[in-house]
Write a sequence for this structure.
């Protein structure tokens, strides 16, 4: 029952002033155990705000982030799952599943979380999961039309992860749920 | 396993236990878990094993159902709902009804529970700190709290639950021991048979099996070869029947079962908390708001603490007054005692014995004739169990009596109360509690006393109980600051006016200090009234309570004074007439505590107002604390305000002095005549008269009456010298300046004068002597108080203090006064 929040590409203050109020009202401290941030926050205030929701926060560097100390990629283990984080602008073509899969194999993770495209995507691929939480503020993107604010909440429980997707469509929060189960022994061949 | 060592001990112990206990406690003597379950009302007390098993099974089923329902697993779709409304049911949903919302709330509750559980019984950690046990406790508590959301989880509930679980565990262990010994009866022979596939003949198996079985048994060497169930000890028999896997309800019905310990513990806990429709429900002690049936509008635990003090006041009023004076509110320590039923005060083994007793008491509500409209009774007294609980608490307080009386401030008192000593004679404690229980039950059914409003603020529950005084004055012993204020103020003013009139000339000797007290005392009161009232002189008591008390006393004095010509018998009547008057004597003391002015706290009170007139000095010892307002008026008769002075002045010296007084053994109640007799001057014939009258009242009130009579007589016939003396005393006090030194001189004078005035009617003499005695005591007290007041007065705690110098002298005089007081108390105790 570990709740992991995955979001990114907020582009505050350059492209968006703040998170949508409906999202903000849902994000209360105390419920979430980890936060994974794909990048492009961009300023320290956003970092602090997210830190207030949960002290355990992992951020990777997006191209517009003002804090240059973030890493390019990060891996962590939560429960039985290995998670990998990367902003995604380094993986070309942007948003391409195969390339992302390459990154996943490189990092040797079960769940890869990337961003940059500002579009929510969740793929099941080769025994692992590739998730793109989209842009939490719905910031403008040069490669995506009609960006809807979205983020992802993962509920990791043993060998099973339930992915809740929260999207703000037409001013309403829509929630969707995807179940992934990890097969017990999945070791990358090496 | 090594049965050999077990064998000699177990059967022996079992049989001895059963024989010793079964006589007292009937069946299930050494199966505490079962016994408690019966006592708590979970299991029927009928003796049929089958019934017990069935009820057990039912309760376990209920618990299992509850557990399934309430322990939430959010992502397990319970009803197979395929498309839950995700907008509502997602983890971040703010919707309180969502599954996740419940999950998070449970998680918070669980965190609270875990905090407490991790600290539970560390000294028995080998059992309580194991994850299995902790898990069980956690689940039980969670489920109970979810089931009773109005209470939530409060610290202390885990301590109520832990011994219950422990007791069940002990039973199960006992069962396993018995099982070892009496294997034959527990295991069905056929269950363990391993049928060899290859053997075709049935007979062959049978032959083989018993051989092997006997081999095993033989090699253990100790098997109890018992033939049938009937040959067993009844205890063992019961155990076997209770644990038979094939009995009623099968495995679910095995009464002593490890698998279902959690279920059983939950049932016991639930029954304990809800009181099983009885009068005492532990859950009430955890609720912050007054329960429906409460008359007082107080939270039940506060009410119960007051009940405790009430009982204590009946039983041992000096200790009670001492505690009250120090300001030790009962709920400071009683909260912990009551909420965990003494779990923190005793070790686990002792606690189990105590709980045996508590649970053995019936919890059904006592049917009282007077219905709920009387606001007298304490809810906790409504059942024998409740009465026993409070009696137990009181007996614990009494156990610490000497150390409590020796302390001078509230903190130390509380420390002593909260660190109950380890090595105690538990049996004695319980015996005492049992005896007190009857008192408690009586107390509940006697006069209601109305002073609950706001009572908990000053838990002075020293109600004037019927037996203590003949008067039916329901003077609320707890002068509550709020409500009674106006009423008593008024009374005071009325009283005061009368007294003014009566008073006439006030002489101004400074009666107070009685130097020659010792002689006086020895001589038994040759003194004529030094007016105790002057004590109050200086210190105005801001305390409305004291006001009340004072006014009560004053009223009393007044009335007494006004009835001078009545004979002794009248005394009684007088007493009766004092309806509104509160016998300050807070008399619960049925002893001469009266005499022992005790009122350590009185110091402050005493200083309070000046001059109670001496007529009223009735109870010599009582100093009616007058409030500041009244102080000027002073002429108030100082009423003996024993005990229950609300003042919490910490005046150690005084306290000590007074404390010594209460330590005197309580004087026999209705012995006024005897008291009087020793007095040399008193004319015995007059005494006889008085005695006759006095003897009628066999209560403490006898003492009071005695004093009152004196007061009355004194008032009546006391010549002006007395008056003068008292007046003087009063004035002296009032000014509080000369207080000390002059006081002493005046007291001397008074004694002389009082001696002189002896010549009057015999009984008057006696009365007067007693009165003088009392007055001198009062004076002493006042003196001391004034001294201390002055010392502290700079702190400006009281308004009208006369901040007079006397500090240096004050000390000396105070000490002298204390000594005199001691003497007085000795004297009185002799009486």
């Amino acid at each position: 029952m570990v709740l992991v929040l995955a979001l990114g590409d907020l582009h505050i203050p350059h492209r968006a002033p703040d998170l949508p109020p409906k999202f903000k009202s849902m994000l209360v401290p105390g419920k979430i155990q980890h936060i994974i941030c794909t990048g492009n926050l961009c300023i320290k205030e956003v970092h602090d705000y997210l830190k207030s929701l949960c002290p355990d926060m992992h951020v990777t560097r997006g191209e517009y982030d003002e804090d240059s100390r973030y890493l390019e990629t990060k891996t962590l283990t939560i429960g039985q799952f290995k998670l990998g984080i990367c902003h995604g602008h380094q993986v070309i073509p942007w948003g391409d599943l195969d390339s992302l899969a390459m990154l996943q194999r490189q990092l040797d993770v079960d769940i890869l979380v990337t961003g940059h495209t500002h579009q929510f995507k969740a793929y099941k691929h080769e025994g692992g999961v590739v998730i793109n939480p989209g842009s939490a503020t719905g910031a403008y993107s040069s490669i995506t039309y009609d960006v809807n604010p979205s983020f992802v909440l993962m509920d990791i429980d043993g060998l099973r992860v339930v992915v809740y997707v929260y999207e703000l469509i037409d001013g309403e929060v829509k929630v969707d749920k995807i179940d992934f189960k990890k097969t017990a022994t999945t070791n990358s061949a090496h | 396993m090594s049965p050999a060592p077990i064998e000699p001990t177990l059967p022996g112990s079992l049989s001895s236990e059963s024989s010793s206990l079964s006589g007292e406690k009937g069946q299930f003597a050494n199966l505490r878990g079962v016994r408690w379950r019966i006592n708590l009302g979970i299991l029927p007390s009928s003796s049929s094993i089958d019934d017990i098993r069935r009820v057990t099974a039912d309760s376990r089923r209920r618990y299992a159902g509850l557990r399934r329902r309430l322990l939430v697993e959010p992502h397990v779709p319970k009803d197979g709902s395929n498309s839950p409304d995700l907008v509502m049911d997602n983890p971040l949903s703010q919707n309180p009804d969502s599954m996740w919302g419940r999950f998070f709330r449970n998680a918070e509750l669980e965190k609270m529970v875990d905090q407490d559980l991790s600290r539970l019984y560390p000294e028995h950690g080998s059992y309580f700190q194991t994850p299995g046990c902790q898990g069980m406790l956690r689940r039980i508590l969670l489920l109970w709290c979810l089931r009773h959301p109005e209470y939530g989880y409060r610290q202390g509930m885990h301590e109520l639950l832990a011994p219950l679980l422990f007791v069940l565990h002990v039973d199960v262990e006992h069962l396993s021991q018995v099982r070892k010994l009496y294997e034959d009866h527990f295991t069905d022979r056929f269950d363990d048979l391993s049928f060899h596939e290859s053997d075709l003949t049935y007979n062959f198996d049978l032959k083989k099996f018993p051989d092997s079985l006997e081999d095993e048994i033989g090699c253990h060497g100790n098997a109890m070869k018992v033939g049938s169930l009937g040959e067993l000890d009844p205890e063992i028999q019961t155990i076997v029947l209770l644990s038979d896997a094939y009995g009623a309800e099968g495995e679910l019905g095995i009464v002593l079962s490890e698998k279902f310990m959690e279920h059983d513990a939950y049932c016991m806990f639930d029954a304990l908390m809800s009181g099983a429709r009885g009068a005492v429900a532990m859950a009430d002690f955890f609720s912050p708001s007054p329960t429906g049936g409460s008359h007082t509008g107080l939270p039940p635990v506060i009410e119960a603490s007051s009940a405790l003090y009430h009982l204590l006041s009946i039983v041992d009023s000096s200790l009670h007054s001492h505690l009250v004076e120090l300001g030790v509110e009962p709920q400071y320590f009683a909260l912990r005692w009551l909420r965990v039923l003494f779990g923190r005060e005793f070790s686990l083994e002792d606690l189990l014995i105590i709980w045996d007793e508590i649970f053995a008491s019936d919890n059904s509500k006592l049917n009282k004739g007077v219905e709920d409209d009387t606001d007298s009774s304490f809810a906790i007294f409504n059942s024998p169990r409740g009465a026993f609980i409070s009696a137990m608490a009181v007996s614990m307080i009494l156990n610490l009596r000497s150390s409590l009386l020796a302390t001078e401030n509230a903190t130390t008192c509380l420390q002593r109360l909260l660190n109950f000593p380890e090595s105690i004679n538990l049996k004695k404690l319980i015996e005492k509690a049992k005896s007190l229980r009857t008192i408690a039950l009586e107390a509940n059914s006697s006069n209601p006393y109305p002073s609950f409003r706001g009572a908990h603020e000053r838990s002075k529950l020293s109600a004037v109980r019927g037996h203590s005084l003949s008067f039916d004055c329901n003077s609320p012993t707890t002068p509550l600051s709020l409500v009674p204020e106006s009423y008593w103020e008024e009374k005071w003013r009325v009283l005061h006016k009368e007294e003014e009139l009566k008073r006439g000339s006030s002489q101004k000797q400074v009666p107070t200090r009685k130097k020659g007290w010792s002689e006086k005392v020895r001589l038994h009161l040759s003194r004529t009234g030094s007016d105790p009232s002057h004590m109050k002189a200086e210190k105005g008591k801001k305390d409305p309570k004291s006001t009340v008390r004072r006014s009560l006393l004053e009223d009393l004095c007044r009335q007494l004074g006004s009835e001078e010509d009545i004979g002794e018998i009248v005394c009684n009547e007088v007493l009766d007439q004092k309806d509104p008057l509160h016998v300050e004597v807070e008399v619960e003391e049925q002893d001469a505590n009266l005499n022992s002015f005790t009122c350590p706290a009185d110091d402050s009170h005493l200083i309070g107002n000046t001059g109670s007139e001496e007529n009223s000095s009735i109870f010599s010892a009582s100093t009616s604390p007058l409030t500041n307002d009244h102080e000027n008026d002073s002429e108030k008769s100082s009423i003996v305000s024993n005990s229950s002075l609300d003042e919490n002045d910490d005046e150690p010296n005084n306290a000590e002095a007074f404390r010594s007084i209460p330590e005197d053994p309580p004087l026999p109640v209705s012995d006024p005549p005897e008291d009087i007799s020793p007095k040399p001057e008193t004319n015995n014939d007059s005494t006889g008269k008085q005695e006759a009258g006095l003897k009628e009242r066999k209560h403490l009130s006898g003492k009071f009456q005695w004093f009152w009579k004196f007061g009355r007589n004194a008032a009546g016939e006391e010549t002006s010298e007395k008056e003068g003396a008292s007046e003087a005393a009063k004035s002296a006090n009032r000014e509080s300046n000369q207080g000390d030194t002059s006081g002493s001189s005046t007291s001397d004078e008074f004694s002389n004068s009082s001696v002189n005035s002896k010549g009057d009617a015999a009984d008057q003499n006696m009365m007067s002597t007693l009165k003088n005695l009392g007055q001198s005591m009062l004076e002493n007290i006042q003196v001391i108080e004034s001294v201390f007041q002055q010392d502290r007065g700079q702190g400006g705690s009281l308004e009208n203090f006369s901040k007079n110098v006397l500090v240096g002298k004050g000390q000396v005089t105070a000490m002298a006064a204390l000594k005199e007081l001691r003497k007085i108390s000795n004297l009185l105790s002799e009486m």
User: Anything to note?
Assistant: Chain A touches chain B through 19 residues (CB under 8 Å). The helical segments of chain A are 21-26, 44-53, 97-107. The first strand of chain A starts at residue 2 and ends at 7. The radius of gyration of chain A is 15 Å.
